[in-house]
Automatic annotation (TrEMBL):
It is found in: Cell inner membrane. Belongs to the TRAP transporter small permease family. It comes from Maridesulfovibrio salexigens (strain ATCC 14822 / DSM 2638 / NCIMB 8403 / VKM B-1763). It is a multi-pass membrane protein. Pfam families: DctQ (PF04290). This is Tripartite ATP-independent periplasmic transporter DctQ component. Its main location: membrane. GO terms for molecular function: transmembrane transporter activity.
Amino acid sequence: MRAIIRLIEGLSVGGAFLSAAGMIFIVCLVVIEIFLRSVLNTSTLVSSEYGGYALVYLILTGLAYTMKEDGLIRINLLTSHFSENGKRIADIISGILGAAITAFALNYTVQMVYETWDLEMTADTIAETPLWIPQLAIPVGLALLLLQIIAFIARRAINDK
């Protein structure tokens, strides 16, 4: 069980690196756009579009790592009064609910990406980006998050914080 948890946490770290790459991409895109506008009096014409895609990408690929590092907001108003065993049970129940919601969202986002790909939809911009490409970040990020939630449940079930 612990080996599977370590594998999932490794995937979460991989997602964090992808998230960081998205952030670096946005910074480079902004620097290039500033240079082109101020020095060459031209534009990439796609910086805001691709910057937006990268923002969604970096947020979603970083969710699992954020959860792994306990960086997501948790409200402990009720659980602060629970015993350690009660907190563990509450974490497992909330993890199961979170996994169910994430799996539901993952299912529909996979369908969305498939339909976008099947219909050959493109962005209504000058780049005409195939929309399935930036949309793919959503199910990838949700899949990583779902795996991390499962690891969270497993850690709490074996009482390994």
